[in-house]
Every structure is written in C-alpha cells, then in structure tokens.
Amino acid sequence: MRETDQRCWDNMPEDIRKRAFLCSRTDRVEILRENYPDANIIDIGETDGIADVRQRLVNIAGNRKIMIVDDSCTFMYRDEEMKLKKMEDPAMWNEMLDMVDTMLDDYAWVGISDRAGNNRIEEDFTEITRSYSCYGINTKMFNQNGISFDGMWKEDKELKLFEDFYAILSMLSKGMKNAVIYKYAFNHPHGKEGGNSTFRNEELQQKCYQALSRKFPGIIKLKVKENASWTADSENTSRTEAIISWKKAYNEDTGASLDEFFG
Questions:
Q1: Hey, which CATH number is domain 7-200, 3.90.550, 3.30.160, 3.40.1350, 3.30.720?
Q2: In this structure, which of 32, 183, 238, 260 has its CB flanked by the most CB atoms within 10 Å?
Q3: Residue 77 and residue 61: Cα distance in Å, rounded?
C-alpha cells in the first residue's frame, strides 16, 4: 500500500534500477505499475504476511543469489572518519552490491548494517549478529540446509512476523554463520502506512515473539518498552521487544565446512 512512494527505488541510480525488481502481491501489481511504469515488476501472487512474502522471493530466485530490500530503505557509506554520508555515486552502489555478492560465496546471509548501530563496529563486517530489512541471500545454501522464512507461519498462519530472525536463528542453530557489512548502512523509518502496518499490532507482535522464544529456548528474552518511539499499533504506546543472544544461538559443533558443503 505504498505504491506511490517507493523510497528505495526513487533513490537508486538508474543503472542500479536495471538490476532491481519491485515485487508486489497480485491485487496491488497494477497500481504499482501505474505509478512506476518503467520499473521491472514481479507479481508474487496472493500473499499472507511478510513471512510468506519473503519465502516467495526465495522460491522465485531458484537457487540464485538475491538481495531483499524493504521499499523504504535508503543507503549511506562510511567515510574515513567513520561518518555516514548519503550514497549517491552509482559506483558506490555497485561496490556495495559486489561486496555482498562476493561474501555470499561464504555465507548464506549477508546483511547491510542499520544506521543506528553502525558506529559500534569499526570493521568492514562482522559475523553472527542481528540483521533485517536489507540483506543478500544465497538461496542455494538456504534450500540445501532447510532454512526458510516461513517455518513458523506454516505451523500457525497467525505468526506473520519476525521471519528474518527466525531464519537467522535457524541458520545459527545449524552452525551456519550470517554476516553484516558495516562499510555501508541503510536507514529504514518505521511506522509508515502500508506494508506490515496493515495487520501488525501489539498483540500479534507479542504472540510472534513468544513463538520465536519457544522455537529457540534460552536464546530470547522478552521485554515491554513503554512509551516507545514507534509502536505496532496506534492505540498502544508500548511494544514488546526481544533481546536475542545471537552468539549463544550459534551451534559451532553442527557446522559443516565449505569444502563439505560444495563437495
């Protein structure tokens, strides 16, 4: 329901748009096409929540590498003084995407850092950590290791949220590391109309976090944040959040080497 305001697409250089696709469910495709007639648009069918959406993108990819980017994301690069600057040079976009592409030879999941936490890591990238809204996926690794976005949703169709955390924790529990690049960063404002906000509320957020906690016991601690800066619904000023022990979730003993995986 943001067909008139594709912030990420609008901020992309023209040559990057040629590599990109706008993806939408069947009943919104024509509205999107009317507003962005020059875009490459994919109809992903009738969908039921973001977990279903993400998995459909993996399925469509057919064992190729893909980059999944939420439509409100804009991008920055980190200069020599560790300051984030707006990324306008098309060459920087290509460098960022090439870095993700190369790292996806070694990782099933390679994310871009959130702007808010970017200055906490001085290295160009780190492993085994939180990632959302913007990430590359090696769908061959995903598929061959039984990783999915929609595992909880398939068991209970009300569990439409936190598909990204579910997928990462599934990877880590199988000894597969994810990676996040800090050389670049994305900004993704929350609370905009459309997208998940059409069905997301505090009750659903809490239920999905509780289900995630049951799936990965001892890894997730739930807390309620009062007077939150953004909430899952307009009638509640608090929201349920989770503290996730990513490194505790990583099961090093089950990890196969890359030689074993590709061999």
A1: 3.90.550
A2: 32
A3: 28
